[in-house]
Amino acid sequence: MNNAQTLENEYLKWVKENIDFRNLSSSVIRIESPFLDRHNDHLLIYAIIDGNRIKLTDDSNTIQDLFMSGIDIDNSDKRKDILSSALGSYGITRMNDELTIECNIGNFAQAKHQLIQAILFVNDMFILRQSNIKELFIEDVDRYFIQNKIRRSKNMSISGKNGLQHKFDFIINGLPEDNIPDRYIKVLNDPRNNLLAKAILFDIQQTAEIKPTEKIHFYTFINDTEKPIGKQTANIITMMPESTIIPYSERDKFTEELSA
Question: What is the spatial distance between Cα 230 and Cα 192, in angstroms, rounded to a whole number?
Fold first, then answer.
């Protein structure tokens, strides 16, 4: 059995069965994605059609929801810089509170993918730890790399088998001559977010198809400082044999492996 093909087929089937397109007017389409937000509601985006151009937007929902939850991104230069960098890596523009991307019909699928992935990332990134609400989990992971002198590239997009771009939070280059693979790294703040875990798995599966397995390995840092990692979340991410979970509380066990 081709495990990779099976996973891809199941993922695409799930997306197709759980996505809904609905005309709101002659030029506006409401798109209900299969992914859930922090309130377990389906993420909504909108396509505004103007001739051959399409503007995709979250209608300001993502940032306004964070603000209503007590998370004001704009009151911290560090948070704004992190948000700007993250959105830039997905090709997303922020206009006031609105997240948007423009495309044509030919690259609509890629643009939709980028906007939904960006919304999921922002939602997860800005769920701050109760014990220290000034810090973001992705900052903690980056600080771990710095403290251990682990060289890494940030916010890298890799073209997958499906032609879409798949973003990884960090990439550590390997040493082919020493049989040390490249390490592609995701960061998951919510340790029980099964839907975001599915998105991570899809990125891993699609990217794994483009390189021999001995030349690439995938890691997902998961924040287990407040609550344990959900069993289903862990099972989803590790469905691919090239994928390893790093509980943040156990990160030191992986330092030598990641430093090579």
Answer: 5
d(CA 48, CA 24): 10
Kindly state the DSSP code that residue 193 receives in the 8-state scheme: -
**Of 197, 184, 206, nearest to 7 (Cα)?**
206
Query: Residue 110 corresponds to which amino acid?
Result: Q
- For 188-238, the pLDDT digits (tens) are 988 988 878 988 998 898 888 777 656 889 999 999 988 899 999 999 999
| Cα–Cα distance measured from residue 220 to residue 246, given in angstroms and rounded to the nearest whole number | 6
> Full-prediction pTM beyond 0.85?
no
CA dist list (Å): 245 to 122, 157, 185: 21, 20, 10
Helix or strand holding residue 66 (H, E): helix 61-68
Token code pair at residue 123: 């939602």
Tokens of 198: 């599915």
**How far is the C-alpha of 247 from the C-alpha of 250, rounded, in Å?**
5
As given in the structure block, the two tokens for residue 112 are 């939709």
Q: What are 68-124's pLDDT values in tens digits?
A: 877 777 877 777 887 888 888 889 999 999 999 999 999 998 999 899 989 988 887
Distance CA 167, CA 203 (A): 8
| DSSP helix, strand, coil percent of the chain (3-state; round to 5) | 45, 30, 30
Nearest to 56 by CA among 90, 103, 121, 19: 103
Q: What does the angle CA 73 – CA 74 – CA 78 come to, to the nearest 5 degrees?
A: 75
Cβ 86 vs Cβ 122: under 8 Å: yes
Bridge partners of 56, per DSSP, are 47, 101
